[in-house]
Amino acid sequence: MNQAAVAKRSYTQKLVLTSMLVAISVIFDATPIGTIRLPIISATIAHVPTIIGGIIGGPLVGGIVGVSFGLASLIRNLTQPTSILSFALMNPLVSILPRVLVGVMAYYGYYGIRKFANDSISIIGGAMIGSCTNTILVLGMMYILYAQRIVEAFSAAGKSGSAQAILMGIAAANGVPEMTVAAILSVVIVKGLKKIYNI
Fold first, then answer.
1. d(CA 199, CA 187)
2. How do residues 37-56 score in pLDDT, each as one tens digit?
3. CA–CA separation, 148 and 162 (whole Å)
4. How many Cβ atoms sit within 10 Å of the Cβ of residue 169?
5. What one-character-per-residue DSSP string does 65-133 give?
6. Is residue 70 within 8 Å of 96, Cβ to Cβ?
7. What is the pTM of this model?
8. Cβ atoms of residues 25 and 72 within 8 Å
9. Closest CA to 97 of 125, 74, 122, 75
10. SS3 assignment, position 42
11. How many other CB atoms sit within 10 Å of the CB of residue 177?
12. Membrane-crossing residues (predicted)?
């Protein structure tokens, strides 16, 4: 196979992969399929397609899937604001910008760890870095832009505390299980896709 044919095949594979992950990301965010119920809380897996896109397709594919994930989150919170923090997620700086970086950081995490570890450990590491990026940047932007409003919203719901304490509590309760779930799903799915695409 000549170089032009190889490049065309690679482009087509990335296009198919990106389209598939964008569709899955939107479905995960818009439906209960993207939520795994755990004994105490529920963990979202809506960020997993973005992580997988970054690890397999590179930072551009991860960024494109991340934009779709963020747009789906923005639209859902604008049209169906069910969370106490929905007001913050109506801002693209909170709902879209951090999600673009999830796939990018997963890619660099994966290839950085790949220099000294095997493929499975590198995928797990990249997925954990991508998931942490989602948690830290989304909650960080909420703190920067809406600290006082978060305190008022939780106070109205009968829960007191500083914005920092509230967001740290959310990070501990949701961030850790989401990172664990993302690592498990990513290593299984990425290895399967690598076999299919012969990467």
1. 14
2. 655 456 688 999 999 999 99
3. 9
4. 13
5. HHHHHHHHHHHHHHH---STTHHHHTSHHHHTHHHHHHHHHHHHHHHHHTTTS-HHHHHHHHHHHHHHH
6. yes
7. 0.88
8. yes
9. 74
10. strand
11. 19
12. 15-36, 48-72, 84-111, 123-146, 166-190
